[in-house]
Fold this protein.
Amino acid sequence: MTAATSTQRPGKLVWAAAAALAAGVAMALGLSAVGGTVDYAATALTVADQAARACLVAGTVPSLTAAQAANADLIVSVSLAVSGESTPAARIALMTAMTESGLENLDLGDKDSLGLFQQRPSQGWGTPAQIMDPRYSTAAFVRRLLAVPGWHQMAPWRAAQAVQRSADSSGSNYEANWPGAGRVLAGVLANGNRPGTCGQGTATLPVNGSRQGLPPGYVIPPGTPPEHEAVVRFALGQLGKPYVWAGAGPADYDCSGLTMAAWATVGVALVHAASIQQNEGVGVGVAALVPGDLVLVPGSDSPGPGLAGHVGLYLGDNLVISAIDPQYGVAVQSWTTFVSGGLIALRDPAPGE
């Protein structure tokens, strides 16, 4: 999968913050250089590992022992990082681990099953040492969950069964722990995590007490090319509008509907699909990003490895605007939050400007 291939763009500015941003992305994704080819399967685990270390919360969770609570905290942190902030994915991961191991990192089980999710080395889940690392095992589970077509539309226990393939083909063994997983998730999220710091919802940048995320005093960076500036102005005018799947305005949007509508205002046609927009225009490196460029990430329902499931528009100042989800609608997130689940591609839909 090719992500963020650097391209020379005459007449476009390289922002003062570009070097710092590029370094931050390289660190977040475990890349030795910005641009070029990214092995998403490998970097997803790096992101998960770093997210777990950075976002691991401390504190008790009702009804859990200290060890179980620590494992629950880690499962949620890693799940949110790998899935692009999907709390349903985090809850499914909790439900599965509660069923398989009781949230204990077991070094034994049926046949060669190991760890929180009772994954088996003989079935390609990894080495015993890897599986016994809760960060690795959680990331491996969530990656396989995201690869199940339509997982978010399935009954959660059937989605878990599609990943685990347990002896109970109905998934009822997982279903029994779905309510409890919800309570545990609520307990973990109340354990000191701040939205926007661990891949949990929109960044805490309120405007007049709203949840739209745009920092007070934001201005489009001077020198933004005219078409890109017009795109950003249009997108900012949609702040607060609801997210509706397949929406393309003017009353509501989904993520690719917003980017499509924004670029249509300057005569650039994009296809209404994030996985296709990742190949439209030209690829750019992080250091060459300008406001209005597309930022494509796996999202909470990636259509497959290397394919974008979510897209936003870069605003400059380490900010991205997108139609996030039904909870947040059109809002602004920090760069760190937006790419916390991985970076698929950066695209300039108008490279000749």
